[in-house]
Amino acid sequence: MPSTQEVRLPAIVSERLLEIPDYQRPYAWRLKQLNDMWEDLDLLGPSGSHYAGTVVLRELTVNGTAKTSLADDGSELRHCEVVDGQQRLTTCLLLLDRIRRRLDALARRGVDNAAEMSSRIRSNYGLVSIDHALVPRLRLGAGLSEYWVNTSLGDQAYVGSGLIAGQQRLHDAARFFDERLTAFGVDGDAVEFARLKELQRRVSAGLGFLVYEVQSVAEVGVIFETLNERGRDLSDLEKTKNYLLYLARSIKDARSEQLAELINNAWADIFRNLAGEADDADDQLLRAHWLATVNPDRREWKRIESIKRRFDRSAYISGETRIIPVKTATQDQNDAWDRLVADLTDYVTTLRHCSFFLKEMFNPAAEFHNFSGHGSDVRRRSAALARSGVVALYRPLLFAARLKHAYDGVLYARLVDICERYSARVFVIRQRRANAGEARLLRLAFELYGGADPDYVVSEVAALLWRYAPNVDVFDALTSTRENWYARRGHKYFLYEYELDLKAPGQELAPMSHFTDSAREQRTTEHILPQTPKVDDSCWWDHFSKEEHAELVHALGNLTLTYDNSVYSNKCFAGKRGKPLAPGAQEFKCYAQAPLSQERQLAQHENWTPEMIRQRQATLAIWALERWAVTSPDIERLEAEEIDIEPEGAEADEL
Q1: Same domain (yes/no): 176, 38
Q2: Mean pLDDT along residues 397-411
Q3: Which of 363, 364, 358, 420 is nearest to 388 (CA)?
């Protein structure tokens, strides 16, 4: 089985000759990776350490015996193939060689010990003498080996028609390091030597590598399966935890353990709260929490990169510990660690709380214990919001309310209620884009978290709603017979809410999922006027022209919920209507005997005509304006204020 341990760079190269096989991709690091590595080293501090990644090595053999070479200094070197980690190893050795070149220049200017240090770097990390020939400690694959030895590690200028991609990357990396090392010399030779020596120490003693040694090609497959988990990348939530733990480890006293314990315990709760929920629950949590508590600009949310920028390591490291000290940066390391503890504690604690809030949002039977005496009202309103099909849009606002007003069930119920009205009017009825008003809603969430008056926030949501869906536009949309309501997913939500309003106390109604389940989705909406009446069905064509049928068949007034519309098929209205169940008579599938109130309402009509459809649609419109009523804001205020109305072409996030 493969063995593994975390080691420093000298332990990887001192007893080995490393070879990158030809099948591996050539050197590929670009500016981002180089910048990241340089920052890691710069922030490492005089005694810090940093996990630099994984290295997988496979020992090479000849006739079953380990392949070795004897160096001229008497050391035995094992030949190993670099299966994984070649990019970071190559970069480390390239940086050390650029340090060596600066040391050579200092030696020529008479700086003590510069020549000896340069020689050690050369033999330990660059070229080793074997049988009087200089051999690279790390041999790159075909196409790069000669350039690596002669130009990257040597002094030969490249002469040719042009650099291939891998050579260009090596050239660019060398230039990147040279530019940064040039700044080491601005304060004189002695200071430059000290800085080069410290940087060399950080590379060789500060970077830790998890090294796997395998004996066979078969074991290489096992390692890749273990490391890559069959291609499963870490989620941003897992990456966030790892990054925060890394920051906690930078503290060099007892606060480090306390902070790490807080993070680990919080993530245990977070994973527990989100277990079994939507596949993207992790991302929903991170995004909504960030928008509510850190930055409401959705364009600035870049997942883990945003979190790293918010908690930039450089903000918590004393400038005096940088390789080139920064006088204007944080001077007191203890104060910086105090801020780190405070910042991470606030972030972790509020994220942990929001994971519980999100769990309750997903759970239709949530108790909402924090809202003593108002839990049932919150649960009822939350269920209605969930049925609307749009919830994620409001999560930052709802998170902010619970974080700042943890026990105010009345406020939370008001917010959920106005959000459901927003969904019904703006998205279901008016069919506005799925991100309509999002920028303003996010700003209100951030303001609420920052201490804004809750009454002000609720009134602003209502004002925004009115801007997008005033009564006149809602009524026009609902009474238009040219709208294809059947094609809207929201029509079942609309009719379900109507049924809830009609049902008698104690009457049972199946959950909305019964009507939206994909297995029966097309069987729970009934076209009263059939979609395809038979050509000779005079019971329909005596009342409807072809043009009226085309206009009205998918109109809202012609649709009703039913538990199963297959029993109605293309029957005439009289057959669909039926009669109430008489004592001793056999039960019959018809509107009059249906379990849903809206079906039984239809049985009150003698015939079904174009006028009946329009009349029913007007009735539904009046009902909807009452069900999702919003008080009109003061007209003068609306005209005076700039309400953030986004253009219809704005890109919508998934809601």
Answers
A1: yes
A2: 96
A3: 420
